[in-house]
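From the pipeline queue, job 12 of 40. The input is one protein chain; the requested action is below.

Action: predict structure.
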Amino acid sequence: MDFGGHESARVYSLHMKLFVTCFSFATLLLSNFLTADNWPTWRGPNENGSATGGTYPVQLTDEAKWEWRVALPGKGCSTPVVWEDHIVVTAPVDGQDALLAYDWKGKERWRTTFGKENAGRHRNGSGSNSSAVTDGQAFYVFFKSKTLAAVDFAGKILWQQNLNPLGRDTLYWDFGTSPVLTEKHVVMALMREGNSWLAAYEKQTGKLAWKVERNYETPREGDHSYSTPLVIRHAGRVALLVWGAERLTAHDAANGKILWSCAGFNPQKKNNWVVVSSFVKVGDMAVVPYGRGSKLAGIRLGGKGDVTESHRAWETEASSFVPTPAAHGGRVYTVRDRGEVLCTDPKTGQTIWQGALPKDRASYYSSPSIGDGKLYAAREDGTVYVAQIEGEFKVLSENVMGERIIASPVPLNSRLLLRGEKHLYCIKP
């Protein structure tokens, strides 16, 4: 091949080296992009408690598998949220509400405080129950003190609001609902007796964009809800799904207006049917635990107005009271409060299989997570079970972590993050 002399050959060689270098760099960037998953909400990237890839550990108490363990400054129950090299949790610091950020080596990047903590009163509660949420531009946090704030990736407070003007908190226990994000707003659901609101704040400024009342007459405590809404697409628009006060409602994310409502969750009008567990969405079906762990319902999404008669697809006689179900591979996995495990077909409500984790006096408050075909379930006493769920149910390991665990496990980037009352763990396979 004739390159027209040595000079042309030299130029060609330089071009080829430049091409190879750029190609290698681009490949590296693409590789990092493909493998660096995020966990932007407490239920993960798909709002279902399931990892999108990776290989995850079975033995969790083998300290040789601990990449790191860091001590936390105070008791908090929020689940870690991750964006690239920022792992964030809420926790009190010297009596102040705070957000803390760590990197993937366990080094603290920063901590930001907001004001006086309103400590928890339940043995498994705290003033930092609500998990943060991020869009990759900022972190948004909420505390029992009713502080709502936005923090940038350097830990600087962008804005801070006090939501006490929306009314007194009459919940029996510690506030647990986490904020959710739309393109323009951070949205909070405050659901309590006669004083329930859905409120949206501008992400850039913290200014109130809209608020709508969400009050329904229910038996005692039936209008109390600790669940977190979901953001969905509905009829070509962004909508908010909200569960509480014996109703699943869909709201236009632009203004909070109700698009449809599904009721019928307490026909016998029982007292104290409070909503604790959130629901999970699979395709066009919302799978809703209710009745203090006694029932699970499938609600078809869509419609207009009152869809109670037309969109209630099925109902079963067992669910969870506190843990939120996880979804994986088109199935729903429920860990009941005493350790029973149910695998459900979300289209029909059929129980595909059921199993059980070892019994104990302690209950499950943490919501289960799924990674690499394995279910991770943390009991309140700090015992974490790893179970096989594909093919058949089988307990693979029992791990006594030595501290209470209420937050949900986070399987991400082939590492398992566990947040206990005293420590944050990063565990490798």
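Job complete. The longest strand covers residues 108-116.
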